[in-house]
What we know:
heterodimer, A: alpha+beta, Molybdopterin biosynthesis moea protein, domain 2, Hypothetical protein af1432, 9 strands, about 10% strand, B: alpha+beta, Phosphatase 2c, domain 1
Amino acid sequence: MMKMLPLEYVQEGMKMAKSIYGSNGEILLAAGISLTAFYIKRLKELAIIAVYIEDEETEGIEIDDVVTERTRLEAIKVIKETMTNIKLNSNVDIYKVNQVVNNIIDELLTNKNVLINVIEIRALNDHTFSHSVNVTVLAIITGLSMGFDYEKLKNLALGALFHDIGKTIIPENILLKKEPLTPEEEDLWKTHPNLGFDILRKLTYFNLASAHVALQHHERYDGTGFPRGLKGKKISELARVVSVCDLYDRMTTYQSGQPRYQAFQAIEILIVNSGHFFDPDIVKAFLGIIAIFPLGTRVTLNTGSMGIVVEAHKEYPTRPKVRILYNQVGKKINPSYDIDLIDDSEICVLRVAEEGSENG
Amino acid sequence: MDEVEEFRFLYETCSQLIKAQENEELFPRIIQNLCTAFKAVASSLWVSNSQNGFGFRRIAYHQASQEIKSFLPTLDFKIANLAAKKKQGFICYNLKLDRNFQEVEENLKITSILLITKSEFIGVINIWCKYKLEQASCCNHNYCNNSILLQKLTNDFTSAIYNYKYYSNSRQQRLNRELEFARKMQTDLVPKSIPKIRGISVAARNMMANEVGGDYVDLFLTQKNNLGIAIGDVMGKGIPAALWTTVARATLRVAARDDLLPHLVISEVNQTLYEDLSQQDMFLTLLYAWYEPVKQTLVFANAGHYSPVLIQSTSGEHKVLKLNGPYIGGKANYEFRSNAIKLNQGDVLIFYTDGLIEAVNAQNEQFGLNNLIDVVVKNSFYKAPEILDNLWLHIGQHIGSYHQLDDLSCIVFKVDDLNGGA
């Protein structure tokens, strides 16, 4: 396996474990390449925040992509094209959109026991697009675990993919502004659900249930959301799913200038907000598909030894399988061995290491 | 091996073992020689921990053959763990056929030797060989002779490692042995199999600052199948404190066995221990709670211990269940009182010792009660074991690698949601 490193920790000589793609699907930097000072500089210019690096310690750990790289890139391309077309007032290719959504659903259907285990990395310039695709994947898996049928999954997926479509009409200086928005700007920003809904419902063959996701994804379960302040089950179920996935993805992915939440922290934020922002039943379903300790997380156990998470158990989220790499006094263990925490209730995770640091 | 070779091997190993008592670095070489002598694919040596922490550690591992897949180190740990827990060495001629080890694809023979002296567990030696069919049904081949050789070696290893652990560097280390006994005894007293009661989940854990400590937690079923929950903290540290925790635990268990109400249990413990405690100027805090699953009520009495906190996990509302009483050993014949509360779905009760909320980080900031409540609320969708695991994670994140001066103990009790947790 590989490990993810924020760019500031990346050093010359490290080997890329996963290719980096541009928003048109072109390869910017291919897997297997040894990083040079030039490449690292280039990555910084591209506003790439973190990369996957090949890593000896995690050799043999397999991460199955929940959705194949090809489908993911296709989806990103489609959402990008659609957004551009909408800006230019030209036609949207609904056929292509449907096809990409079907592909994602079909891939996820073949693998029903999915646990979200990886952290996605994206360049700043295609953040919105890959965020949309990520939310779509998360939403479908949540929907699957809630027993949605194919039709419902499809409406959910379409809604998730286009939940932020209204932002295409919001001026970029507002979307990219780092400082807090002025009240006027905020009012403008808050129109994106309505704008999105208007765009989507005018599209031929576009399901109204999916369009409502764009309209309602900022509504909150307790009625404090916008634009209409809908409450509880008055908010469409699909929108209730998407709002959970939307926040989770925004919290756990790298965005420049912001620290990323560890999965366990993001999960806690969802739980705290369940019943307030979110439908508790949906949060519950969502927790069932997310690993508290994603693969590759570096942990210190209460035995004092340090290691890396190599397997997560769906039923026992706090008790992953850990590969022991360093002993109590910080001495490297070679060869390493695995301890499965479900076998031993005395052992538990005491700390999660900061990304990029060598030891916990 | 013929007799001469065997003799030479024994002599070399023995002399190396003597040197290894002073120099840990030699163990890997000894294990490597062992591997070669037995034509093994791999071999390892595990030694029980003498410092704080628990379990054991691997001090040597050698893999002669690279053909064997990388699962071997993990399997090796599992076997050593099994031998240590069962206090039994074993031989399995072909692990592939053992249904407990379904992951094994190769024909592997494992000989796991337990090193024990005076009933004290010292360590484990594992020897991994390729399984060959003819070995199973013979009695004058290498392998049979090897088992005699192994017996001789076991004795050498046991005394060498025993000496290495307790006598190697200084006389001071002699004490380690006693300490380790005490530590082992104390950790064994933390309930491992939590009583199972429908509708609730419970979990307990403690973390000692040193080998032994003055904290104690206990969970048990009473005669009428109610749940007894006890937590205590002996003032002072080290061995005297540790001794008193075991005394308190036994006394309370006897007093609580017949479903006596908590204030009577606590009064009984106080009466039994008062004289001895006051003679030694010792005292301890003790809280005993008794949960009746049918009525969903919790009755508790408190002898100077930190009050438990009741948290309505979803709303986040919390209440400190205050009920004062003097320490055990504080006042002779004191009549304690009990309080009863009715619990509802989603209620979480946290019993803890001062070390938990006073756990400090390098900046000397305490973990604090608010943080504790916060963690419970943030994990309200989970059952007690997960809440406890996540609580430990937060405490660990808080303290970092800063060494704790006090013991930390905690019991999490949750009336589970009927809809089930996450």
